[in-house]
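Progress narrative, work stream C.
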Amino acid sequence: MPEAVELLKQNLTIDPDLRSFVHFVLESIDKLGGNIFGASLAALDLTQQLLNAGVTTGRPVPVSLLLRDKQMMVLWDRQGSFKIATLPEMPPQETIAQLCIYLRSSTAAADPEILLQRNAEMERHFAEVRIRAEKEMEILQQALNTGKYKLLEVVHQAETDALTGLLNRRAFDEKLKQTFLHTMRQRNSPLSLLFLDLDHFKKINDDFGHQVGDEHLNRTADILRKIIRVDVDFAFRFGGDEFAVVLFGDFQLACDKARQVLRSLESKVSIGIATINQDTQNDLSLEEFIRRADNALYEAKHRGRGQVVSHFCMSQAHQRCPYLRPGMDPERHD
């Protein structure tokens, strides 16, 4: 297929641009020996199609007049095309070259009034585009916020115990891992893990029914919410009568919080504590940290329930395992 020759290329922005372009198209057909009458009729359809493409709305629309094998074609916006005329014969290369020079010089000499009008229309168009884009961005941002809130709500529900409103086991696994790794890496503050098990909870359910048992669980949850700091520490319910607290504090603070729980629940709870600080061995794993808190809870229950046992996660030489009975001063250790 013969290669196309681009005779004329313009950006059509306003109505005078369109009229000027159609004039140059008809003039080119005439200079190349085409049927000007037939081209004039075709130019009416071309004008309408260009109007439909938005050439007078202030948005610059690139339009080209091409010659390929006697066919005069108009292309615009990389999508539209229109055959405006068919020449009786292919004109000489010299004639085509002279026409190109003429069209370039003619389009370069633009009327200042047209330039001003074109600039004004382009500014108006770009202002409309900017306003429309800002509105679309606002709508998009609102949709993103709505989606974000819905996602947060779904995550919250997935991490919340339905009965007590505390965080659940799934949240415990995630948040303890994050806080443990951060504490072991930074070594700038201690971290305590408390495991709690309500004493003889099954008997409460058996003797008084599950409704009373649920009330006891909710009361325990309220007590844990009171001893932790909002947006700092975390309280969890694993399920059944098992609870946990992740406390950003040392052994002394953990014992103080445990004593508050013991007092509030009339010593009907067993608590195990594990604490890490700057003296904790570097190779302590998260699993071992959890195991030590769990072992401390088991020892508290083994010693007769209603008390606290704490395990310091330090070097082997400094490990100790104090326990706290009701009314016992946390400064004293057996």
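Work stream C, second folded protein:
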Amino acid sequence: MSNIKFIYNPTAGLKKSFFSRKRPDLLLHSIHTLLRKYEIEFDEAPTKAPGDARLLAAKAASEGYDTVIVAGGDGTIGEAANGLVGSDVALGILPLGTFMNVARSLCVPFDLERAIMCIKMRNTRLIDVGEIISIKGEHPDEPTYFLESASMGIEADFQNEFLNWERGDRSALGRFLKNLTRFYRSPLQVELDGGRVFESRAHVILISNGPYAGAAIPVSPSAKMNDHLLTVRRYHMSKLQLLRYLVHVLILGSYREPKIEVYTSTSVRITSQSPRPVHADARVFGTTPISIKVRPNALKVIAGYPDSVQDSALLAKNVYLAP
């Protein structure tokens, strides 16, 4: 048996192949060729349904593999990471998706050959994950983690109704517009560690483990994935101001906005008078109340090599920020 399990999403790269005219099967053949070129022996396992990457990664860890290479988008990477949290198995990433927020944060090259060279060099680092302790006041059926961010607000509401729209509910858009007014009349209560509590009517509350979310937007540029802290951002903006802010971030890469308050905490609890959808790493988990904590050094990853400290979402190896 090889020490490496290669997990891939057979449909990954469809968006890229639409533009490059390269079929997913040819993309997989290219990966096989490059892995063999760099003398990386592996056993492989394709995903067949949502959630498979988590099961396959957890099985690989139980079978004694020391590395799991995952080829896919952010969803597949996140699933596999959930299966490896708490183990000593290193996660290697071959980015095939459109935005690849985790790969971007870890400075993993988007070029496949360079990404495989990175795996060959095996620069392993330990990163934190966000853990959802309770949702709707109840513990999840299984441990639930996120690598990027969790949010309550317009984004989460939109994601929830968009999923309903995809399932055929044509009233979802109207419900989203109606909820914009109803939900934001009542405040959220946010509790941080150290006894810090505040109420907010902000349109977005964002809890970040890393700097990027959504369409590779640097929503939390100060967040580091190994500082053992969650970064909480409260957006005090009108819907128009929020839209302007997002446009500036997308175009300029950064934008100072005085109506954003930033906190750090090892745990966050959010309650609301009306249930509010909770969205984390492109998945809608349920509604408030919700409790989240950081789980330090929970996942071993193979990281790239940044051109500068500012380019990385990791603290330097000899730097540690105590909570």
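The domain at 4-122 is CATH 3.40.50.10330 (Rossmann fold). No further action is required on this item.
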